[in-house]
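Bench log, entry 3. Co-assembly request; chain sequences pasted below exactly as received.
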Amino acid sequence: MKLLREADRRNWRTIVLALAVAAVAGTAAVAQARFATKALPRPEPLGELTYYPSGAWLSQSAMGDATAWSDLLWLRAVQYYGMHRQTDNTFVQMAHVFDIITSLDPHFQSAYVFGGTSLCQEAHQFDKGVLLLEKGSRNNPRAWIYPFELGFVHYLGKRNLTRATFDFAQAARQPDSPDYCERFAAWSGQRAGYELVSFELWRQVAETTQNAVLRDKAIEHMRQLAKGTPEARTLEIWARSLPPLQGGVSDKISPWGDS
Amino acid sequence: MNAIVAIARGTFREAVRDRVLFLVVGFGVISLGLSRLLSPIALGEGERVTVDLGLSALGLLGIAIIALVGTNLVHKEIERRTIHVVLSRPVSRTSYLVGKWAGLSLTMAVAVGAMGGILLAVAVSVRGPGAVGPVAQAVLLIILSNTLLAALAVLFSSLSTPILSVVYTLGLYATGYWTNDLRDFAAAMPGGLGGLVRGVSFVIPNLELFNLRPQVAHLQTAPTMQLALAFGYAAAYAAAALALAVVAFERRELK
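Structure output for the full assembly:
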């Protein structure tokens, strides 16, 4: 009996000692992980993808999970965008990465639209942005959104009204295209006031997107266009009336801004 | 200490005799060969792809050894009742578990180290002597991260069945590379949930700390601070996991 009690006591002593070791070592591990997070440079999101020659190559290795991979890469791409938007505003890997995402999933609308417009505007890689949107159009020939976005970037980025008119008209011809495609085709074709049409294009984006980053961007452009005009005040009231979306530039670039 | 060394040696011998280990090492050799075969279609990036895919194969080799050999360690001895023979000698349960972990880590380190040596030779031949430092560091950190995962495998092995242990270990291995992303997601989540996710991100092993593959792709070495932190972190995390394994194992009824 005494021997059993002694064994039991030893057992408990070991357990208490082990728990103490677990607590101390666990705290040390968490402290080091926290320190590493602060002290070491963050790995560049998407850095690991830079050496993949193309999305086609990657889709062969995805073994049936290409769309799941494209989702994961999309999350990383949004992070990449957010990180560079808040720091150096250079987007060296973006075209390559969005090409990979859209090769893995050729129907990934958000990737084409967000990638294409961001490349044309923030990244100042107009040709690559147009290539991405044209790829979307090629892979989804009945979708109105790609010719519409092509018209959008040609109108705003290059003031190429002839090309924009053609693209808006193309968008208007697709099934399920909204009325405003035709409206923009007409305005663009009639060479209506550039500021007015630009303002309307951005308003359309702000009202229709589910992507908080895109909406913030659209409102910012509208503010610039309305600066010093009586519409500036109305614009702020209108912006506040929009239904809230999660994330956005104003409350940190968020990986949850997907549409 | 003698008991720990004896059990580690026994575990190493037993693992080396296991056919699973040969399968895993065979898979590793084939992966290394395949990564070399892929280089002609990599459009000028063949050397980089060879080394990087080789390192990925090493990482997979390590985790495969731990998942297939490690998670079965304690359970197999309980099933065969050979554990009673061991524990009837002057060997404490703590020594038994630490010995098992040391033996498993040694098995993994020898297999990964040997494959790492082959990869190093391939890397030097395709990328020149500048590859020695980065590749050697990357192999060392793969071994370190796997010793941490081996401690987790021993913890799960002493708590649960082999299949569940494999699932838990592989689950932590997969999420371990997402700890930075988890913290970013936590920052975008509302208050309480964000705090919880952030907390979880520090409990999950931070395997990104051991990942030097992006640096190796550019033939860069890791900063000394990262190496020191990786050593310290692996030691502390493995100690915590083993201590919890001891708590679970001390309380376990062995029939």
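The CA atoms of residues 48 and 210 of chain B lie 19 Å apart. The longest helix of chain B spans residues 93-127.
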